[in-house]
Automatic annotation (TrEMBL), chains A, B:
Protein name according to UniProt: N5-carboxyaminoimidazole ribonucleotide synthase
Positions with a binding annotation for ATP: 87, 127, 161-164, 169, 246-247
Alphabetical list of Pfam families matching this protein: ATP-grasp, PurK_C, RS_preATP-grasp-like
Gene designation: purK
Domain (ATP-grasp): residue spans on this chain: 91-276
Function: Catalyzes the ATP-dependent conversion of 5-aminoimidazole ribonucleotide (AIR) and HCO(3)- to N5-carboxyaminoimidazole ribonucleotide (N5-CAIR). Catalyzes the ATP-dependent conversion of 5-aminoimidazole ribonucleotide (AIR) and HCO(3)(-) to N5-carboxyaminoimidazole ribonucleotide (N5-CAIR).
Keywords assigned by UniProt, alphabetized: ATP-binding, Ligase, Nucleotide-binding, Purine biosynthesis
Native organism taxonomy: Bacteria, Bacillati, Actinomycetota, Actinomycetes, Mycobacteriales
Similarity comment: family membership: Belongs to the PurK/PurT family.
The enzyme's E.C. designation: 6.3.4.18
Quaternary structure note: Homodimer.
Protein source organism: Corynebacterium glaucum
A Gene Ontology molecular function term of the record: metal ion binding
Length: 377, 377
């Protein structure tokens, strides 16, 4: 999705992809197939570029640093990226900044596990400190023995946090360029399913304006203090009118996809501007409300090809914006998303959910509903 | 610009380009270099495509027909395209439909020229019936002898029209899919310079709502009667609250670039949907007013590279949307355009003009103004 913005801005892109049929490789002309963990591969695409950036945070920092030492501009830089890669370092840094974070502790031994379990009365969330995404690398042990099992069997460094009982999840997104300019988008509500963001609503409905401002300022402060370049998503838990930081992502983020159709400057354009150290664009919304719903694959029905599903969605919902990633159906995989920008939250939510449901299932939600009702009678 | 929409919709594209550094060839992975007037070249890219379309109207119709005979979907089809290719056929057809067109006549001989000159009292516009664009192939002879010279020296078929004294130019754009669904965008005002569209304002300021509706209906009717598929631009002259058709274009058009940032569905997305026979998208504007200003190259100042100019524009105008075509500066060439979507016409026009001026000249308009004033004092 960065490529579409790059095209309009006249920015030439070069991609390192693991496989020729990766989403981005389908839409970028200059593709090198390689492994981002192999320094030679990364170096080969970095040569001559005005800036190097990534669409995930798992690039080895020692390689990024080697490139920087060679004079290549790499953004975000390892000193910032570290805090999106290592959850324990992130928690420690955020706590030091005075940012609201849940109680946490490193879990290296069974004794650590038992001690933390007791501190939080068993309200525990265990996380791999590195490598997790979309709910992977996160566990909620139901008993101390389950927690001890994790310590014994999981072979990556762990940490634990107090499990938060939250009212809803928010996401405060900002972008910061190399020169230090920061701009925030309106705070959105994010609805997760199985650890994956499925719905984003911009702006977050009914959010107290004071708290909204607080969230935006928090995200700006984190971007500045952590020296982030590019897009930063601060995922938050809202509980009783207060927030705590859940996760940080240093890249265009699922909760920012709405900006493609609901904002003057999309997160993808903004990320490019930020890493090239161009001034940032206006983050003003272009509609009172924009809803994004992901199309999470699962029930592939090969008898109706994706193109036909798209056409059916377009027929019923001329205002829906369909975005597809060129991926095949697979359980839980994000095939794309739908944005609907309009006056009314109800309409936006209904249309976006309806459209996304059809892309995934090849049937209308209300048809399924009617069928179920008929069965029940 | 169609490619950016194709990417988001998951549509795979293949391009026939004359040169590897053509704008579109820079952003499409699957490019064949060839000549659109060579049937073999066109056939080679058409094989296996769901639809074939073009970004200009000069594709030989006999080739398009051959492809259709082979079972390829080509849109728009030759029966429609003909009326965008041949101005005389277009005038005859529009007149037969009762559409408002200026008085016209074919000019094959000097006698034809003299006769028409007398009919319109020397208020003459001479046009090549085929091959013209952006002011090329259009002449305004100041005397009968100049007109006779044209007949003697121009070696393509000519026609003549009564020269229209108009208040302003409008553009009524619609799209029609293969199944016959038609959607109109708001009518825009178009400001030309040297035969090239330089500014478009959507919607056309102060346009009588009755006349706006009339223009939209006229464009819809032309699309239907001419069996157009894809985007159709009907360029109009407005005079004393009435309109006459100036030109037809059957493709995404300069006067529709504003839709990229000011409308739910851009002309580029709509064209793809239309030629694939997908249902059309909503044409609702997303801002009260959107202004597009082309960046027409001319005064290249290589000491400030384009990227730096873009950055300067972004610094001063965070709300300006920059679109570049990957072309080098050259006199009168369109390098790109700026869209500004906002509440106020004045603001949109000022910002878009200012931004476009800087991209082209590398200086601010007001700086030039101030410098001139200083010189004058």
């Amino acid at each position: 999705m960065m490529q579409t913005e790059a095209i309009e801005l006249g920015i030439e892109t070069r991609l390192l992809a693991r496989e020729p049929d990766a989403s981005a490789a389908q839409v970028i002309a200059d593709v090198r197939i390689g492994d981002y963990t192999n320094f030679g591969d990364v170096e080969s695409i970095a040569k001559g570029a005005d800036a190097v950036t990534f669409d995930h945070e798992h690039v080895p920092n020692e390689h990024a640093q080697l490139l920087i030492d060679e004079g290549v501009v790499v953004e975000p830089r390892p000193n910032a990226l570290l805090y999106a890669q290592d959850k324990l370092k992130q928690r420690r840094r955020l706590k030091a900044l005075g940012a609201p974070v849940p109680e946490f502790a490193p879990i290296n031994t069974e004794a650590d596990a038992e001690a933390f379990w007791n501190v939080v009365n068993g309200e525990v969330c265990v996380k791999a400190t590195r490598g997790g995404y979309d709910g992977h690398g996160v566990w909620f042990p139901a008993s101390i023995s389950e927690m001890l099992d994790l310590v014994r069997t999981v072979d990556v460094p762990l940490m634990a946090e107090r499990k938060i009982g939250f009212d809803r999840e928010l996401s405060a997104m900002v972008a910061r360029n190399r020169s230090g300019e920061v701009r925030a988008w309106p705070v959105v509500e994010s609805r997760q399913e199985g650890g994956v963001c499925r719905v984003a609503i911009a702006p977050a409905p009914g959010l107290d304006p004071e708290l909204a401002r607080e969230c935006e300022q928090l995200a700006c402060r984190i971007a500045e203090e952590l020296d982030v370049t590019g897009v930063l998503a601060v995922e938050l838990f809202e509980t009783d009118g207060r927030v705590q930081v859940n996760e940080l992502a240093m890249r265009p983020h699922n909760t920012g996809h709405w900006t493609q159709d609901g904002c003057v400057t999309s997160q993808f354009e903004q990320h490019l501007r930020a890493v090239l150290d161009w001034p940032l664009g206006a983050t003003t919304p272009t509609a009172p409300v924009t809803v994004m719903v992901n199309t999470l694959g699962g029930e592939a029905r090969p008898e109706m090809p994706v193109a036909q599903r798209v056409a059916e969605v377009m027929r019923r919902h001329p205002q829906a914006k369909v975005h597809l990633y060129g991926k095949d159906f697979r359980a839980g995989r994000k095939l794309g998303h739908i944005n609907v920008a309009t006056e009314s939250l109800d309409e936006a939510l209904t249309v976006a959910e309806d459209a996304a449901h059809f892309i995934v299932h090849g049937t209308w939600r209300d048809a399924a509903h009617t069928a179920n009702n008929a069965k029940g009678e």
